Amino acid sequence: MNHISVAIYLDVENIQGMINFEDLLDDIRLQVSNEFENVDKAVFALKKAIGDSNNLKRFRNQLSELNFTIEDTPHIANKKNRADLMISVDALEKLHVDHPHFDLFVFLTSDSDYSIVMNTLRKYNRQVWLVATRDDSQRTIFKSSTDKILIIDDYRVIKETKSRSTKTTRTKTKPKPSDYEKLQPYLKNESDRRALLGMLKVMRSYTEEKLYTTLDTNNRFRQIDENLNLSQTKFKKFKAVYKVLEEAKLIEFQKDITHKFTIIDRQKIISYLNKIQNEE
User: Could you list the residue range(s) of the whole structural domain that residue 124 is in?
Assistant: First the structure.
């Protein structure tokens, strides 16, 4: 089995709001399948988060459950801490020692100082990915020093706020059913919910311009939830999952070709993923 060995570094000083790191890791696994030929899976041989204690405590539970190594780097004289320096030195050390060998380095940051270490890693034929804001993804210094940029907003936890209902004497009209309602019958049972979440995560790794096959998509689904037996869910088979996603207007199958489809609205997929996870 061919695999890609991945090192991921999180500079928590640069993270605004709450991020679902499990989602991020799942998407990196799936994106590896998109970017590397003849690779079966991505293996996270190193996961490290560095920052000061105040920032780390926001994510500590998540990071601990995902087996990240956590390093506290307090600020010196109330100024900038040394997270960027520590991460850069650690990454270069891994390159020098080369045991284990890392094929891909992923950095979550908005600090342009990292461009130095990223350029160095690429010089030694390592792939370098960046997780950054949409604005930072357009900066020349990052585009010129990385092989791929993932958008951090795709993994952001957005809490929905319920608007207050106002009393009215008008006759109430029945609201038009939303596409999301097509998914709701499958959110009550944990196995059904896992099947739906797993498939939505795969769809999130896709783009709207390309054509995808159900066979390849099924294999990618198993990369992030290989222990789920679909026969024990309400869906029974993958075909039923695709039917629900098509009814929710998230994907569209090609005419007269039952195994090829396109993504209709990737942002809607991301929105539904967040909505389902908020309902836990």
Answer: 3-155
